[in-house]
Design brief:
- The protein is built from 8 helices and 17 strands.
- It has 351 residues and is an alpha+beta fold.
- The strands form 3 sheets. The protein has an 8-stranded mixed β-sheet, with helices on both faces. A 6-stranded antiparallel beta barrel has the order 4-5-8-7-6-9.
- A hairpin with a 5-residue loop joins β1 and β2.
- The longest helix is centred in the middle third of the chain and has 18 residues.
Length: 351
């Protein structure tokens, strides 16, 4: 990965984007793509689109820019902050974590309290519900806290990118800033060859709340085909229950979905690209749904051929999500190579 592209990734990961509060991340994404696109725009809710106008067909490379998080639900008399989750936040990993409350006046640091092990009842060790957990910002009372934060302010873990061995990184919110990085990079690489097709790069909002941004922008763009890149569960890590084993490994390449929303012609096209370009991929069974924006794109406006490509990710929805940078770069390369020859593919099934 080149230094500029890595700096772009790090900036995305350092920028907070809990669902419903994605503006700062969308601005970073748009700024990066302005150099390569004929047009960049955003809709009323912040879904961002970069456009290369090369004629028919039109294909979209998409990811979602939001991450899970929390919100200030209430402020207690003692000045601590009551929480409510944004998206699928995991109550088992929140205690004892540093957080930032993102206010109109800037971030306010805090910690989610955890009673010391010496003082806990060993018979009641189950993790408390998020609504029962509180953030300590050091305020003496409610009046002082209310001068700093407001109800409805979003909260994220205060977690930086960690460099692991063998080209791997850990961070909060790899789900799914890596998807919008891959969409942007796939777009950049595709348009460099001046393809005879229109290419969209898309960063959606509010995926973690129910694929809502993809429903909006999928209807608006109405592309001929769309590839939605998200993370997928790498099941080669420690502690994965046997019933969830799917042989998806870090370092094995992007995972190409089959079944449900994944259009068979798109699956075949991407597999052909991978073979031709010697890009390692993995196959992933998606019997009922993908759980990604692909599920919204393919029915947003009639039937739109869609495909979910997953970047293998360990420890999803925790502050220590982990991936292999080679998988991420290979995902961008796969998207870019596909989009560069989009005009050569047939997207309708032959019946």
């Amino acid at each position: 990965m080149e230094s500029r592209q890595r700096a772009f990734l790090d900036e995305l990961l350092d920028t907070a984007s809990p669902s419903g509060f994605e503006t700062a991340t969308q601005q970073v994404w748009i700024e990066y793509l302005q150099e390569y696109a004929d047009e960049v725009r955003a809709d009323e809710y912040g879904n961002a689109v970069a456009i290369y106008d090369g004629g028919d067909p039109a294909v979209a490379l998409a990811g979602h820019g939001d991450e899970i998080g929390f919100m200030v639900r209430d402020i207690a008399e003692d000045g601590t902050i009551h929480l409510t989750p944004i998206g699928g936040s995991d109550r088992t990993v929140t205690r004892g974590q540093h957080v930032q409350i993102h206010t109109g006046d800037g971030p306010v640091p805090g910690v989610i309290g955890q009673t010391a092990i010496h003082m806990r009842d060993k018979d009641t060790e189950d993790a408390a519900e998020i609504a029962e957990q509180q953030v300590d910002i050091g305020a003496a009372d409610a009046d002082e806290a209310e001068e700093l934060v407001e109800r409805g302010d979003p909260i994220t873990f205060d977690q930086t990118v960690s460099e692991l061995e063998n080209g791997r990184i850990a961070a909060r919110g790899l789900d799914n800033r890596v998807g919008i990085w891959a969409a942007a990079e796939g777009f950049r690489r595709a348009v460099a060859s001046e393809p005879e097709a229109t290419i969209y790069a898309v960063s959606t909002v509010q995926e973690e709340l129910g694929l809502r941004g993809a429903q909006m922008v999928g209807f608006d763009l109405n592309p001929d085909a769309v590839i939605a890149t998200d993370v997928t569960h790498a099941t080669d890590g420690p502690g994965v229950p046997g019933k969830h084993q799917r042989s998806i490994e870090l370092g094995g390449g992007p995972a190409v979905g089959r079944g449900s929303a994944n259009h068979p012609n798109l699956v075949a096209a991407v597999r052909e690209v991978a073979e031709r370009e010697a890009i390692d991929i993995q196959l992933e069974a998606r019997g009922s749904r993908t759980g990604t924006d692909a599920d919204a794109f393919y029915t947003a406006r009639g039937g739109t051929p869609a495909l979910n490509v997953g970047v293998p990710n360990r420890y999803m929805h925790t502050p220590t999500e982990t991936l292999d940078l080679a998988d991420l770069d290979a995902t961008a390369e796969l998207l870019g190579r596909f989009a560069a020859r989009a005009e050569t593919y047939e997207f309708a099934v032959d019946i």
